[in-house]
Amino acid sequence: MSNPTSNAECTAEQAFNTVGHHIIFASGSPFLDVDLGNGQIGHSNQGNNMYLFPGIGLGTLVSGARHISDGMLQVAAECLAECMTEAEVKKGIIYPSTSRIRNITVEIATAVAREAVAEDLAEGYQDKDARELQRMSKEETSEHVEKHMWVPNYAPLVYH
Fold first, then answer.
1. What percent of the chain has pLDDT over 90?
2. CA dihedral 93, 111, 66, 130 (to 10 degrees)
3. Fewest C-beta in 10 Å: which of 3, 54, 70, 159?
4. What is 88-136 written as a DSSP string?
C-alpha cells in the first residue's frame, strides 16, 4: 500500500472492518494494530526496507561484489522469511520483531555474501580476498560480517 500515510489506500482499521479478521495487512505506512474484539488483535504490519537493505548492503560490501544479483536478493528475502518465529506467523505478523534487527541483518548479510561467493561475484574485502571467502564456513562468514558491522556507540555530547 502507498506511502506516506496521507497516500494510503486505506487504514488497517478500515481493512479489518471491511474484510474481517481473516486478512494479513501490511502497509508502507505505520498504523496501529486493530482490536478485533474477543481478545483478537489485527496486526498492522509495516512493510519496510529496514529489514533487507542493511543486510543486502553489508553482505555486498564484505564480499566485495561490484553489483547485486537477483540471486543475492532472493537469498536475502528467503533469509528474512526464515527469521520468523512460528508464534509470529500464527499471530498474522509478517515481519520479525524489530528487537532482533541487528541479528537479522547479520543473517541476511551472511546469506548475501555467501551467495555472492557462490555466483563468483565476490572479489574480497579488506582482510579477506575472494579465495579466502570461498573457503569460509557459514559461521566464519557470519563472524566476518559482524566484524565489519557498524556499532552505534556515541560519545556524550554534553560534558559536566
1. 61
2. 170
3. 159
4. HHHTT--S--GGGHHHHHHHHHHHHHHHHHHTT---EETTEEHHHHHH-
Give the three-state DSSP class for 26. strand
Angle of the 138-148 helix axis to the 53-63 helix axis, nearest 10: 100
**β-strand partners of 71:** none
Residues composing the chain: 160
Alpha carbon 83 to its chain centroid, in Å, reads 9
- What one-letter code names the amino acid at 59? G
The predicted model scores a pTM of 0.78
C-alpha span between 153 and 144 (Å, rounded): 20
Q: Determine the Cα–Cα distance for residues 92 and 90; give it in Å rounded to an integer.
A: 5
148, 126 in Cβ contact below 8 A? yes
In angstroms, how far is CA 124 from the centroid of its own chain?
23
Strand pairing of 128-129 and 124-125? Answer: antiparallel
Q: What is the pLDDT of residues 127-137, one digit of tens each?
A: 899 999 999 99
The enclosing H or E element of 83 equals none
Question: Phi first, then psi: what are they for 41, rounded to 5°?
Answer: -120, 130
- Packing angle of the helix pair 101-118, 70-82 (nearest 10 deg): 140
Cell of 13: 482499521
